[in-house]
Amino acid sequence: MKQTPDSLTPLLRGIGRFDFIALSINITIGAGILGLHAKLYALIGVWSLLAYVVSATVVTLIILCFAEVSSRFSATGGPYLYARVAFGPLIGFEVGWLFWLSRMAAFASICNLFVSYAALFRPQLATGWERASLMTGLVVGVAAINYMGVQRSARVNTVFTISKLLVIGLFALVGLFFVDTVAFTFPKFPDYTSFSQAVLLIIFTFSGFDVAAIPAGEVQQPQRTVPLSLLVSIGTVAVLFISVQFVCIGTLPDL
Q1: Going along the chain, which residue ranges are E strands?
Q2: Does the record's keyword annotation contain Nucleotide-binding (predicted)?
Q3: Is 246 exposed, middle or buried (CB count within 10 Å of its CB: 0-12, 13-18, 19+)?
Q4: 3-state secondary structure (DSSP) of residue 27
Q5: Are 13 and 219 in contact (CB under 8 A)?
Q6: How crowded is residue 23: how many other Cβ atoms within 10 Å of its Cβ?
Q7: How far apart are CA 128 and CA 158, in angstroms?
Q8: End-to-end distance of the chain based on CA atoms, in angstroms?
Q9: Radius of gyration over alpha carbons of the chain, in Å?
């Protein structure tokens, strides 16, 4: 299988293995973890824990495919590059544009969720120019971090990732001491529509691993680093998400 030589895309390989693992985890743990747990509980109650296991299994199978394919490439492009090499430029073009559109939509939804939470502290952020200004600031801020260069932006991302893991992990760990086991009474298994909807919502929160494979041309030893990072990130995120859902069910009666 041929690929685009690195000489055609002379990028700085400034992302080390630890920074890339942090990048993969940070992309996967998005804003979904803040807004999803109550939605899942409303759909299927305690069975949401099983939905997480099912979703993690499905996503892991997909990630294994990505890990296998990414081990054969060292250039930038991710899914676009894989599709172009395997099926030609037309399919690669279609995959690239569809991928771009899906990420734009996902980014827009995350921006909206961020603003919705910020509006709890300042109601004026819910509408009008303040809402638009905050969203613009988010986009400009992310762009500025990337403009600093690959090594510096990777370090900033690692700091964000560690902070995120510490805060969410502390919430799950402390919450375990306050869990009420009575809350874990499993009712009748939910209908197919509700359960499948919950699984699809969780799969969305696990998405991001496909994005992590894109900057392989800026990663040190990408054919080893990318597959390892994908597997470590899904394992870390799955354990963290299930732990948070468990704590939320056991400590919040009106979740």
Answers
A1: none
A2: no
A3: buried
A4: helix
A5: yes
A6: 24
A7: 34
A8: 50
A9: 20
Please say whether the beta carbons of 222 and 19 come within 8 A.
Answer: no
Q: Which two tokens stand for residue 93?
A: 């073009």
Is the CB of residue 239 less than 8 Å from the CB of residue 165? no
Q: Are 213 and 62 in contact (CB under 8 A)?
A: no
Q: Note the pTM of the prediction, 2 decimals.
A: 0.80
Mean pLDDT of 110-134: 88
Mean pLDDT along residues 35-61? 89
At residue 253, the 3 state secondary structure works out as: coil
| Average pLDDT score over the chain | 87
Place of tokens 């400034």: 14
Nearest to 226 by CA among 208, 238, 240, 214: 214
Tell me the CA distances in angstroms from 134 to 118, 130, 146, 160, one per residue in order: 9, 6, 19, 19
Query: Could you tell me which of 59, 87, 52, 101 has the C-alpha nearest to residue 202?
Result: 52
Phi, psi of 86 (to 5 degrees): -80, -40
- pLDDT above 70 coverage of the chain, percent: 95
pLDDT of residue 8: 52
Residue 50: both structure tokens together: 């099983």
